[in-house]
């Protein structure tokens, strides 16, 4: 049920798309796009052996900027689709990508149950603290008091503490990356992709057009690699504290990981002992006898 590897090994060119990138100059999506491709190449996963699921948003425009099986879904609804696809074919690595607007507003219920159920899916959160595609509306992760396009007097609501929220759901994998540190983000994504259950990866990224409070330079100055400081990702309490406390510095890296918790599929009693996946069991069935009950 692990990741299918191609011994020949794909290259970055295998993931190259002829479609031109249309993100704003300086957008963090470029860094995430690059780190994702590098992670897949280093794990020897070719484009024909991975499913990339995208929500609606600036990040979703990545769906035709790289090769692979790709799905572009509805706003806030990418996680249930990704979970269903993975459960149907456990041999296929499945990655879901969403923005902070969709994931912590319209889709927050799906996020809750993805963490709770420990679906074996990697989730990349493009966190630029606004709705960039619709020209800079505030999201639930926008800094309180910040003046945005549709909030000229500042945001009145409290900013949702996203990391504290995720940790309250007892996750099995939580990481934070920065789009300006491509090498580290690549390593984070490799760890998330090979994780047993649900891998939550919060990627802080600049939005040069609409987010003027968490710029690339701001993130470059505040973010630091907690791996280099000897952080132990098995300590839940310390990981949660490290994730939430961003007052002076912002820790990046794998913050927490528990490798011992079975994922959703492994908990399904009818699937235990099965050598096949659900897609292998699809077949035509004669339902004529059943239809007689409706005659």
What is the structure about, briefly put?
With 295 residues, the protein is of the alpha/beta class. 29% of the residues lie in helices and 15% in strands. It has one domain (28-294): Thiamin diphosphate (ThDP)-binding fold, Pyr/PP domains (Rossmann fold), CATH 3.40.50.970.
Structure description:
The chain is an alpha/beta fold. It has one domain (28-294): Thiamin diphosphate (ThDP)-binding fold, Pyr/PP domains (Rossmann fold, 3-Layer(aba) Sandwich). The chain has ten helices and eight strands. The chain has an eight-stranded mixed sheet with strand order 2-1-3-4-6-5-8-7, with helices on both faces. Helix 1 packs across helix 6 (182-193) and helix 3 (100-106) crosses helix 4. The longest helix has 14 residues, at 29-42.
What is the strand and helix layout of this fold?
Layout: H1 29-42, E1 51-54, E2 69-72, H2 78-88, E3 94-99, H3 100-106, H4 108-117, E4 122-127, H5 162-168, E5 173-178, H6 182-193, E6 199-204, H7 216-222, E7 223-225, H8 236-244, E8 250-257, H9 264-267, H10 288-291
Parallel strand pairs: 1-2, 1-3, 3-4, 4-6, 5-6, 7-8
Antiparallel strand pairs: 5-8
Helix pairs in contact: 1-6, 3-4, 5-8
